[in-house]
User: What shape does this take?
Amino acid sequence: MAQPRTPNVRLAAAITEAGWSHGQVASALVRVASEVGAHDLLAVGRSHVSKWVAGFHPSGRAPELLAEAFSRRLGRTFTSDDLGLTPARGSAERSMLDWDSDTLIALNEVGKADVDEHRRRVLGAAAFSLAGLALPPAHWWPAMAQQGETRARPAARTVGRADLEMVRETSQVFSKLDQRRGGGHARAAVVTYLRTEVANLLVGNYADDGVRRAIFSTTSELAYLAGWMSFDNAEHVTAQHYFTVALKLAAEADDPPMAGHIIRAMAHQAIDLGHLQQGMRLAEASMEGRRYAAASPRERALLGVVHARGLSATGRTKTAAAALLRAEDDLAAASPGDDEPSRVFFFSEASLAHETACALRDTGDLTGAVREFRRSVRARKASTFTRTHAVTLGYLGAVQARQGAIDEACGTWSKALDAMDGVHSARARQTVVDMRRALSPFRRRNNSTTIEVDARAAAYLAAVA
Assistant: This one.
């Protein structure tokens, strides 16, 4: 005799709170399913919902789409777990990377995966997806912008400009912390804030459409920041998922410069990981149309230097040089009075010199690379941009070592190690790994300078392991 099923009290409670009949739940689910192309759920009716309340488990993507339906109705974020349901196997991974999945579901899933220790380990063990570097087709962008306009939440509170300014101010604080302390510091706080207070603003009514777009755009910046912090801490799969979600949010905000900013970061990551052709395609895409044309001069310069790095990394030296000159012109056109987004506050002469040096290094122009790395070190305000200052010094020392100036390299590396105190960044840590690798031929020589720096580097790596 079959065992009776346990009724799903969580789902029943959510239905009661929503004030829906089982037929209305089915209609709401079908509406969401039609938006995301889940055609297998379009025939769901009242009887299906009654069975789910009785304890049967819905198939496929129904749990995550039910969660979205209840989120819309009740004005706060629901998950499958909140409804007493288990997501379909692989649905979290799909919802985070697939362009056609719902933005808010994907945001919740990547945040949940990041803060849950078990799911974070699973995500960290996954492979970086080259397929995930392919951008959506041209028709996707206007469709996402239109979808953003129709995310009405009748039961939710009104979100106004005061809410927007609150998120912007908090985002700026986190961004400055990242620049100073590195991506390994405070990301949990960023993600918690993003998943709770900010996510709830995405399911509200808005004072006007300008506020809605700005809320989605600012949330995109926060998701991008979580991705950038993950990238800086060498959690590349997690970073890729955040970048994907950030791009969806930017598309719903109809914010091409924000989209260009994110695609530029995706290109940077791909190039750093050695996926040069994919990175080059992303760098080109970041500068297409209004992503570049509507951006502020400072942001155009940022897009331009990563484009130049892609060109140099793929062997197009002359074109890379022209792209660097264009980036210099864009940065020269920026002024303190510009109406530019806060996300580019870090990009200055020092940043331009750093990226220029990386491009020159990649083409084999070590003399030019040393010159530009030194210019970056001189121009950067180290107390504010400590992480990048330490990385720049590490890179400079590596190029000096390649030139055979090992004593000079040791002097630079010693300064880099000084700067790394209090910085939690895998990129900074990698420069120390490279430092020890470059010093390995000198370990048996009686050179006090190399011995001292090598010992400091070993101690640093032991402390951060």
